[in-house]
Amino acid sequence: MTDNAQYWDRPAETLTRAGIEKLQLSLLKSCLARAGRSMFYNAKFKKIGFDPGSASSLDDVGRIPFTVKQDLRESYPYGFLCEPREQLVRMHISSGTTGQAIAVFYTKADLELWADLLARCMYMAGARPGDTFQNLSGYGLFTGGLGFQYGAERLGMLTIPSGAGNSKRQIQIMRDFSTNVIHIIPSFLLLLMDVIKEMKVDPQNDLSLRIAFVGAEPYSQEVRRRFEDFYAIKVYNSYGLSEMNGPGVAFECPCQNGLHVWEDAYLVEIIDPKSLAPVPDGQYGELVLTALRREAMPILRYRTRDLTRILPGECECGRVHKRIDRIQGRTDDMFIIKGVNVFPIQVEQVLMTIPEVGNNYVIVLKRENNVDDMVVRVEVTESVFVEDMRKLEHVRKRIARDLKSELLVTPKVELVEPNSLPKSEGKALRLIDQRVI
Ligand code: ADP
Ligand code: ZN
């Protein structure tokens, strides 16, 4: 660790653009050479006649074929390995949110680098040695558990591996040990708001929370605001995926305006998911990542299916590592209703600005007599629920109107009582498509 209070890894975090590009080219060369040792890339390179030794500038990245999730599934479990079995010390398996999960492997050096990147992320956002860090994330196969654990220990925080679930016990631990930093997925942090109320705990006075790292699934700026107000904390967006080690790929700095991708470890591109051509900075597209430093399993130009954009311009924090905008969702989260493309997060954005709306919602797509309908089921707050029907109807109409003006589709809005929709301690299911296609 450096003596400069602002940085965890001063040389990496203060690289210039030219410095980043120079480093990336040399990393890319060694990464390609290593990748060529795996069964998958060896066969792929031969098939398309790509010589991994031929890359001489960063622009040559465009000649490397994309890798998609299906490739990883088909090569399950060892097809991407570049190191002999004896060099491997860890395996994780992705959550499998969108289908068959995939296995990822780590060498000792991979774990070292991963821990260091996560320590860097958390330090950047304001966590410090001596803080008490509670990791309310699934342990075991999910990368958010051990990944953050090692990063937090590396940073020097007292680390509590409290895991997912056990809501009441989590709050008790927070109280007993004055937890001030947490890592948690947004659905669970939402759920805890209700638990805290139920336990009659005052989140601002009975707890000592200061910072939350929140990620692993999409959430809107409005939800962040709700968290920050309710808990009186700062919330920083954390992005990662198992294929790229796990969390620690991109993280928000104190400016809370986009997530810096650690370009000394990952190469970032944004492409048009249809034409596969690069899109200019500022424009939304699919995030494509290359793990430049992974030893066990470097994955090249991985199509994440996550939609975001590069935020143009420089960040006020001074780091030049490119920033991505918060993830809008996965390409496969998008649904089409009455000819309009919609992401669940757009619905959330609208709902969460309405004070009478509670913390849970679900979108149900139905088809009756060949007509598609979008039903948005929304929990209202306790205080509204006890009001008269007129007030409820007023809220219902306002939600429908606001959604219509954002999405250009008129949904059916159903208000339901607080705590009546299914709760999730894991990644939430926000969309139920009942249409028979
Ligand atoms: P799975 O793809 O099976 O869920 P992972 O556990 O590896 O497996 O999850 C990685 C995925 O989680 C990412 O590709 C992305 O879709 C989602 N994700 C991770 N962090 C964020 C974030 N901060 N915002 C939105 N989505 C995120
Ligand atoms: Zn910044």
Mean pLDDT: 95
Unreliable sequence segments = none
Please tell me the CATH architecture of the largest domain by its name: 3-Layer(aba) Sandwich
Bound molecules: adenosine-5'-diphosphate, zinc ion
Coarse shape? globular
Characterize the largest beta sheet: strand count, sense, and whether it forms a barrel: 9 strands, mixed
Describe the fold and architecture.
The protein is an alpha/beta fold and 437 residues long. The chain has two domains: 1-332, ANL, N-terminal domain (Rossmann fold, 3-Layer(aba) Sandwich), CATH 3.40.50; 337-433, 2-Layer Sandwich (GMP Synthetase, Chain A, domain 3). Helix content is 31%, strand content 24%. It contains twelve helices and 21 strands. The protein has helices spanning 10-13, 17-35, 39-48, 69-74, 108-124, 143-155, 167-176, 186-198, 221-231, 344-351, 382-385, 389-407, and strands at residues 88-93, 103-107, 132-135, 158-160, 181-184, 211-215, 234-241, 246-252, 259-261, 266-271, 285-291, 302-308, 310-311, 323-324, 329-330, 335-337, 340-342, 357-368, 371-380, 412-416, 431-433. The strands form five sheets. A nine-stranded mixed β-sheet has the order 4-3-5-6-7-8-9-14-13. Strands 10-11-12-15 form a four-stranded antiparallel β-sheet, with no helix packed on it. It has a four-stranded mixed β-sheet with strand order 20-19-18-21. β18 and β19 (371-380) form a beta hairpin. α5 (108-124) crosses α6 and α10 crosses α12 (389-407). The longest helix is centred in the first third of the chain and has 19 residues, at 17-35. The chain is globular, with a radius of gyration of 22 Å. It binds adenosine-5'-diphosphate and zinc ion (ZN).
